[in-house]
Amino acid sequence: MPKYVAALDQGTTSTRFIVFDHAGSVVAADQREHEQIYPGPGWVEHDPIAIWTRCQEVVRAAMAKASLTPADLAAVGVTNQRETTVVWDRHTGQPIHNAIVWQDTRTAETIEELARNGGQDRFRSKVGLPLATYFSGPKVRWLLDNVPGARDRAEAGNLIFGTIDSWVIWNLTGGAGKTRGAGSTRGGVHVTDASNASRTMLMNLRTLDWDPEMLAVMGVPAAMLPTIRSSSEVYGHAVGDLAGVPVSGDLGDQQAALFGQTCFSAGEAKNTYGTGCFMLLNTGAEPVASKSGLLTTVGYRIGSEPATYALEGSIAIAGALVQWLRDNLYLIDTSAEVETLARTVDDNGGVYFVPAFSGLFAPYWRSDARGVIAGLTQYVNRGHIARAVLEATAWQTREVLEAMNADSGVALKALKVDGGMVHDELLMQFQADVLGVSVIRPKVAETTALGAAYAAGLAVGFWSSQDELRANWVAGREWRPAMDASEREREYRLWKKAVTRTFDWLG
Question: Could you tell me the CA-to-CA distances from 89 to 93, 224, 310 in Å, in that order?
Fold first, then answer.
C-alpha cells in the first residue's frame, strides 16, 4: 500500500513539491524559483513553459531525495497561485503569450469601462467579487484582444484557458499527448476546481458553473473553459515522472491553506504570509456578502458535498516587498536577512511603508493607488526601512481583520498563520501586538501544500474524514500581544494616514 501523498504547489515566485506521510509530516521536499517578468509599469508576467519545467524539476528532486517511486504515492494534489491566466493551443500545448499574473494591472481600462454602468460592485451579487484588475476574466479578454489572431482561434475551439492549476493538471495528465508510435499518450484533462473558478469573475457563486452573462460581458468563448470539478476527486492519472499516480486534489493556494489549517467550521480563520497576504474566514454552506471590502469566495468543495464558502481579505504585497528590498534596492542579500536588519533598531523611526505597487486590494480596492514611504527624516537608516517593510504586512492584516470582524459580526480571538514569512519572529510578535490577539503557527507550517495533499488523499481514501485531518493539526508556536493599547492605536492612526497618501496617484 502507498505510504504517502504529495502536493505540487505552484506559487507566484517559486514551485514546490512536498511529500507527506499519514500524520501530515513532511517526508521530502524541493523548491525552485522562476523568473518574474516586468514588461512595463504595473505589468507582471510568467513564462508558463518555465513554470511547467520547474514543476518537473521539483518532482524529480524531491522523489530522489527520499528514494521514492510513483508506487509510493497514493495521490497527488495541485495548489496554485490564483487568478494568473494562461491561454494555450489545445493541439500543440504552446501558450500564445506569457501568463498574466494576478498582480498585473494592464486591464485597468477594461475595469473602468465595465464599472461605468453599475459601479465597482456591478457583479458582486453574482460572482462575489468587485471589478478589479486582480481577477482572471478581464485578463483572458486582454489576451484575446491583443494577441494577433487569438480571438478567431479561440472561437474556432483551438485555444483553451486556465488558471495555473488547469495548466499544471493538463500537463501532468498528458498535455497535448502523442498520437503516433509506441509512445502514444492521451491528452491531458482540462479541469479546474470551484475554488479557482470563483476567482475568475466568470463563475456563478451559487450554481458553481460558468455564468453565460459573465462570459458575454467579458467576451470569453465558453469552448475555452475548463470543466469545473470539486476540490477533491480523481481528475485523471499522471504521466511521466509520476506515472499512474491519481491526480485528485485541486485548490487555489489560499483555500488550500484554509483546508490545511483544518479550518473546517464556520468562524475559523487563517492568514497566509506569502508573496501577498491572504486572510480567509470559513462562513459555512452559504456565501456571505461583504459590506467591508472583502471578497466572497468558494473555500473548497469535497467530492459531492455542498461547497464551503469563505470571506477573504486579499493583500497584494507582503513577502514581495521583502523581495523588492533584496532585488531592487539591494539592502539585503537574502530575504531572511530582513529580520536581522530590522532588529538593528528599536522601532520604525516614524517610517510607514505602504506597498501599493499594483494598487491597493482589500479593503480599499483602489487601482489608482501607488506605493508610498511616509515619515522620512534624516534620522532614518536602513534598519528603520527594513522594520517598516515588515510592519507593513502586519498593519495591512489589521485592516483586513477589522473588515472581517465587521462582516462576520464575530471578533476573532486568535489567528492561525502560515506561509514563508511566519518564520520571522519579529514580524509575528508585532502582528500579535497590533491585532491584540494571539497568533498561532502550526507545527507543520507548509499548510498550502498540506491542504492540497489532504484534498487528494481524501479522494482516494488515504484519509477517511476531516476529523482525521483535524487530529493531525498541532500548534508549534504562539505569540501573545505585549504592546500597550494606546501605543497600538497611535501607530495605527499614523499607518492609516500614510495609506491615504497613496490614493489618486494615477488620477
Answer: 5, 10, 34
